[in-house]
Amino acid sequence: MIVTIDGVAASGKSSVSSGVAQALGVPYVSSGLLYRAATLLGLEADLDLRGAPGLLKLLGTHPVRLEPLAGGNRVWQGERDLTDDLHSTRVDRGVSVVAALPEVREWVDAQLRALPEPFVAEGRDMGTNVFPHAPHKFYLTASARIRAERRARERPEDVPAIEADLQRRDELDTVQSAPAPDALVIDTGPLDLQGVIDTILTRLR
Ligand SMILES: Nc1ncnc2c1ncn2[C@@H]1O[C@H](COP(=O)(O)OP(=O)(O)O)[C@@H](O)[C@H]1O
Ligand SMILES: Nc1ccn([C@@H]2O[C@H](COP(=O)(O)OP(=O)(O)O)[C@@H](O)[C@H]2O)c(=O)n1
């Protein structure tokens, strides 16, 4: 059984997915971390992030592995744990360019589809493209200001700068971010984290 939780940047996908997954006793899968890992490695290798061949060669010679756990996902490249380096402002700013490359999307999708069920999968296109047959789909939204205020607790920049970056990323991610027609859309603005998790669990039960 697969539950998909998609949504715009900083709408609560990973926190909510983690809470839902823990309540269900299954792992959750954060697809965005794979896009972030490809971006980080491209930046570190000084590659042009718009160039798929260079990135794919790098990912082929230095394979990246997602470790899905209920409490939090980790991403490995060999023995190196990349996880703590994936949420920098530098990666935030480059990731949508990398995620627009069809070859990189195929690389991510193949890894996700190889994972053993059951799990909760979160990202942008889990319910539309990657797992269209999932029986339970959710889509999280909130205003850019609310999302920026939440993310400001995790980043050094101020709220207006974060809000501008989120809006820019929303725009670049538009193509892959449409909600599945059969997803329940949840405006998380008026809800706290537990409120969103409970809304989803109620629907699942
Ligand atoms: N409903 C909510 N109310 C308050 N804070 C929230 C809510 N959902 C998420 N958050 C907080 O917002 C931040 C971004 O959430 P996160 O799960 O990282 O979002 P995403 O995975 O969509 O980027 C985190 O600090 C998280 O704790
Ligand atoms: N399924 C997905 C997941 C992420 N992404 C891309 O990866 C980026 C980072 O995703 P994320 O979920 O880690 O980002 P946040 O929403 O947590 O800020 C997004 O801005 C998209 O460009 C995507 O295209 N498709």
What would you say this structure looks like, in words?
Residues 3-203 form the Cytidylate kinase domain. It comes from Deinococcus indicus. Belongs to the cytidylate kinase family. Type 1 subfamily. By secondary structure, the protein is of the alpha/beta class. It has one domain: Rossmann fold, CATH 3.40.50. Helix content is 48%, strand content 17%. The strands form 2 sheets. Strands 2-6-1-7-8 form a 5-stranded parallel beta sheet. A hairpin with a 2-residue loop joins β4 and β5 (80-81). α3 (52-61) packs parallel to α5. It is globular and about 45 Å long. The model has no long low-confidence stretch (mean pLDDT 95). Cytidine-5'-diphosphate binds at residues 9-10, 13-14, 31-32, 35-36, 95-96, 99, 123-125, 169, 173, 176.
State the end-to-end distance.
Answer: 13 Å
Class computed from helices, strands and strand pairing: alpha/beta
**Whole-number tally of structural domains:** 1
Number of helices: 9
CATH homology superfamily name: P-loop containing nucleotide triphosphate hydrolases
Bin the helical content.
40-55%
Q: What small molecules does the structure contain?
A: adenosine-5'-diphosphate, cytidine-5'-diphosphate
Give the helices and strands as they follow along the chain: EHEHHEEEHHEHEHHEH
- Sheet with most strands: strand arrangement: 2-6-1-7-8
- What is the radius of gyration computed over CA atoms, rounded to a whole number of angstroms? 16 Å
In the CATH classification, which architecture applies? Answer: 3-Layer(aba) Sandwich
Instruction: Pick out the low-confidence regions.
Output: none
Highest-level CATH class: Alpha Beta
Q: Biggest sheet, in brief?
A: 5 strands, parallel
- How confident overall, as mean pLDDT? 95
Main location: cytoplasm
Binding site for ATP: 7-15
GO molecular function, one term: ATP binding
Keywords: ATP-binding, Cytoplasm, Kinase, Nucleotide-binding, Transferase
